[in-house]
Structures are given as structure tokens and as C-alpha cells.
Design goal:
198 residues, Serine Threonine Protein Phosphatase 5, Tetratricopeptide repeat, 6 helices
């Protein structure tokens, strides 16, 4: 076996090994990426950050998919309260090779750096926490009534009002007669032409 044959065999072996590694990385990337999305959508932002960081390490950051993962990572940072990390990542995404990723990074950076509006206290509604109420108070239980079940009176059924037919305006009903006559004529014509055509 010549030296060039050995090099070709090594080259083929390296290519096969590289494809296997890339395939394995792709599977690990998909698992981490989908786990990050699921964690983000369920409100577990810290876990989402960890999954997106793992996914980001498995794919080139300058690819379109790498930019998408970094975008999710930045949004997860912001949702988790780490605004400085999110802004830093948005600034990096402004220089991403993918045009759509650059545009989205600029938009999200603009939103993240926008000043927070002040809200008056009278504009906000405070919802009381009902978890601290004693369990014995049943007036807040869903579906529980304070009235005994046996004392419920049946609801009276409403009866329709009787209509006095002498007061009905029958002159306006000429349109109904016209519609009925046209319908009969059309049906008669269809039957007539149906017999003669067959």
C-alpha cells in the first residue's frame, strides 16, 4: 500500500469521524435548544439560560441558527432579571453576519435600553393574596355556597307572550308571497327542463 493510499484512508477516516461528531453535536444541540425553549415557555428562565448556553456552545455563533440561539439566550437573560448580560448580548448580535439576526438584535437592544415609564400607584390594582386565609373560611372556596342545598327554590320558567294576530301588519307580508311564487316557478322550471333534457 502506497503512502497516498494510506493518506486517503486516513482522510476518509477523519471525515467519517468528523461527521459522527457533528451529528452527535447536532443532536445534543437540538436537545439543549428545545429544553431551553420549553423551560422559557414554562417560566423557568434560569433553567432556560443554562440550556441556551449549552446549546450555544455546540453550534457556531456566526451561523443563522447560532444567532437564533443567542437571541433566545439574551431574551432569557432579560426575563431572568440579568439585564446587563442581555444588553451585552444584544450589542454583539448587532454585528452578527446574518441580516435578520442583526435587525432583530438592534430592535431588542432598542427595547432593552428604553427608559422605564413611571407608573402612578392609582393606575395599578393590588390583588390580595388569598393563600394566607384560614382553611376554615369557606366563603372563598370555589363552588361552595353558604345556603343549604335543600332550600333552593326552582327558577320560574318564562312563558312566551301570546301574540294578538289581529294586530299583525299583513300588508308587509307581500314580499313573502312574492318569494314563495318565485321559488315555485324556479322549482317547476327545473323539473320541466330536467324531464325534457333526459
Amino acid at each position: 500500500m502506497s503512502t497516498s493510499d494510506r493518506l486517503n484512508i486516513r482522510y476518509v477516516g477523519v471525515i467519517i469521524f468528523a461527521k459522527a461528531v457533528v451529528s452527535e453535536n447536532r443532536e445534543q444541540f437540538q436537545i439543549a435548544y428545545q429544553a431551553g425553549k420549553a423551560a422559557f415557555e414554562s417560566g423557568q428562565y434560569r433553567a432556560a439560560v443554562q440550556h441556551f448556553q449549552a446549546a450555544s456552545a455546540l453550534i457556531p455563533s456566526n451561523s443563522r441558527l447560532g444567532g437564533e440561539v443567542q437571541m433566545w439566550l439574551a431574551i432569557a437573560y432579560e426575563a431572568a432579571g440579568d439585564r446587563t448580560e442581555a444588553i451585552a448580548l444584544y450589542q454583539q448580535l448587532q454585528h452578527h453576519p446574518d441580516l435578520e439576526t442583526r435587525k432583530q438584535g438592534k430592535r431588542l437592544l432598542y427595547i432593552a435600553q428604553a427608559p422605564e415609564l413611571s407608573r402612578r400607584s392609582e393606575w395599578l390594582v393590588e390583588i390580595p393574596d388569598l393563600k394566607n386565609l384560614p382553611e376554615s373560611e369557606s366563603k372563598f372556596d370555589r363552588g361552595v355556597s353558604n345556603r343549604p342545598a335543600g332550600n333552593r327554590a326552582p327558577r320560574p320558567r318564562s312563558t312566551p307572550e301570546a301574540i294578538d294576530l289581529s294586530q299583525v301588519n299583513t300588508k308587509d307580508n307581500l314580499f313573502i308571497w312574492f318569494g314563495l311564487i318565485v321559488t315555485v316557478l324556479i322549482l317547476g322550471g327545473l323539473i320541466w327542463f330536467g324531464r325534457s333534457g333526459g
